[in-house]
Amino acid sequence: MRLLVTGGAGFIGSNFVHFVLRHTDYDVTVLDKLTYAGNLDSLRGLPGARFRFVRGDIADAALVEELVGSVDAVVHYAAESHNDNSLHDPRPFLETNIIGTYTLIEAARRHGTRFHHISTDEVYGDLALEDAERFTEQTPYNPSSPYSSTKAGSDLLVRAWVRSFGLQATISNCSNNYGPYQHVEKFIPRQITNVIDGVRPKLYGEGRNVRDWIHADDHSSAVLAILERGRIGQTYLIGADGEKDNRSVVELILKEMGQAPDAYEKVVDRPGHDLRYAIDSTKLRTELGWRPRYGDFEAGLAATVQWYRDHEAWWRPQKSATEARYQEQGQ
Ligand code: NAD
Ligand code: DAU
User: Fold this and answer.
1) 147 given a catalytic annotation
2) What is residue 88's DSSP assignment?
3) How far from chain centre, in Å, is Cα 29?
4) Would 111 be classed as within a structural domain?
5) Measured between alpha carbons, how far is 170 from 285 in angstroms, rounded to an integer?
6) Among 13, 116, 185, 309, which residue's Cβ finds the most Cβ atoms within 10 Å?
7) pTM for the complete prediction?
8) CATH number of the domain residue 18 falls in
9) Alpha carbon of residue 289 to chain centroid
């Protein structure tokens, strides 16, 4: 199979490309604009005969037409992905997440190309903190931020193209990923690299918000299962039962890095901050037999801490500009 992976120089896309080249005999072409979030160093060492990189925009219809026409399937990761950025400048989120997705699905329907759309649990809004309820494929859409509302819009475009035009598509909505190659703007890498720099981790508000953590490799194995065996037109939720509040995650990072458990700082909260995400992945597990491999969050987190210790050359160039942006926002 020949795959086109959009956003393959980003965090989850690059993990997926490594995963696919390791576990299948597929050929992979990455289409990535290399925004501030894309990094070619995340794609180093891949087998040249099976891997090709194209720098370009998913909203560039002529380029997309040519690339989509030359593959068997598209796995669409490219997005503006960070909630905090979307609260300060929403426009790129509309251009990439909405217009970019529209451009890709138009090409996929013209060519009859299999399409897998990567999305997020944030399209469902949030859950109460003190509740056992979890998101399912039937939960109504209720996004909170410019980021999550553009992802919700892109999901709805894909659903409409399936119904009206017979697009051969599936959708997955996954919870918060952690692992190697994640940009230092995101919660876990920001705190690990802060501690390496002798700076206290920054917790928004009281740190009570809950996220449902999954290792990026488990996300990749789920996407591959859906691409290969998922039913066309279906949505699958991906999660690994990894609920943790933010303060507990910071405390685990501090413990792993030999710091006192209270060596963090509370900073200005995110406006509209979603309280809790939690995924019920029963459909994916029963229908496709998928299981996560990284059951132990603490062990996965320890490996991630070690990865950032070992790969300072990868993250260092982005660190000071990222922290300068946060500082402007009091975060
Ligand atoms: P990321 O920000 O790390 O990477 C995004 C990549 O897309 C970058 O390489 C960037 O250069 C590229 N890109 C952005 N705009 C582009 C454009 N117009 N044309 C081509 N390439 C463009 O994001 P991520 O965290 O890896 O997320 C990837 C996907 O997974 C997104 O669709 C996101 O909504 C979804 N997702 C993320 C998570 C998470 O925890 N990070 C969880 C569930 C779903
Ligand atoms: O749920 C899936 C989503 O997870 C993806 O769709 C998004 O692309 C991805 O960025 C992520 O969104 P979050 O907003 O949950 O992730 P973030 O890493 O920005 O923040 C995680 C939690 O940590 C959130 O409750 C905010 C908090 N936080 C974040 C930062 C950067 C802090 O307390 N301090 C921080 O410095």
Assistant:
1) yes
2) H
3) 19
4) yes
5) 16
6) 13
7) 0.98
8) 3.40.50.720
9) 22
Residues whose CB is less than 8 angstroms from the CB of residue 111 and which lie 6 or more positions away in sequence, other chains included: 68, 69
| Number of Cβ atoms within 10 Å of the Cβ of 20 | 24
Q: For residue 111, which of 57, 76, 165, 65 has the smallest C-alpha distance?
A: 65
Q: What are the strands of the beta sheet with 2-6, ordered from one edge?
A: 51-55, 27-32, 2-6, 73-76, 114-120, 169-174, 235-238
CA distances from 266 to 188, 203, 321 (A): 15, 5, 21
Query: Which atom of ligand 2 is closest in space to residue 177's alpha carbon?
Result: 4
Q: Which residues of the chain have pLDDT under 50?
A: none
pLDDT tens profile 83-99 = 999 999 999 999 999 99
- Per-residue pLDDT, 131: 86
Q: Tell how strand 51-55 and strand 214-215 pair up.
A: unpaired
Considering only CA atoms, which of 170, 293, 272 is closest in space to residue 221?
Answer: 293
Number of domains composing the chain = 1
Side chain identity at residue 110, one-letter code = R
Distance from CA of residue 119 to its chain's centroid?
8
Predicted pLDDT at 121: 98
Q: How many CB atoms lie within 10 A of CB 198?
A: 6
Please report, to the nearest 10 degrees, the dihedral formed by the alpha carbons of residues 145, 80, 115, 59 taken in order: 120
- Ligand with smallest separation from the Cα of 188: 2
287 lies in some domain: no
Best residue for ligand 2 mutational test, from 15, 77, 83 (most atoms within 8 Å of Cβ): 83
Q: Whose structure tokens read 């300068």?
A: 324
Range of the domain at 159: 2-177+214-238
Q: Would residue 24 count as lying in a domain? A: yes
Please check whether residue 214 is in contact with residue 238, taking contact to mean a CB–CB distance below 8 angstroms.
yes
Q: Atom 25 of ligand 1 has which residue's CA nearest to it?
A: 11
How much is the pLDDT for 330? 86
| Alpha helices (runs of H) in the chain, residue ranges in sequence order | 11-23, 61-68, 83-88, 91-93, 101-111, 146-165, 187-196, 216-229, 246-256, 282-288, 297-310, 312-328
The alpha carbon of 119 and the centre of ligand 2 are apart by a number of angstroms equal to 15
Q: Is 289 a member of any domain? A: no
Are 57 and 80 a contacting pair, CB within 8 Å?
Answer: no
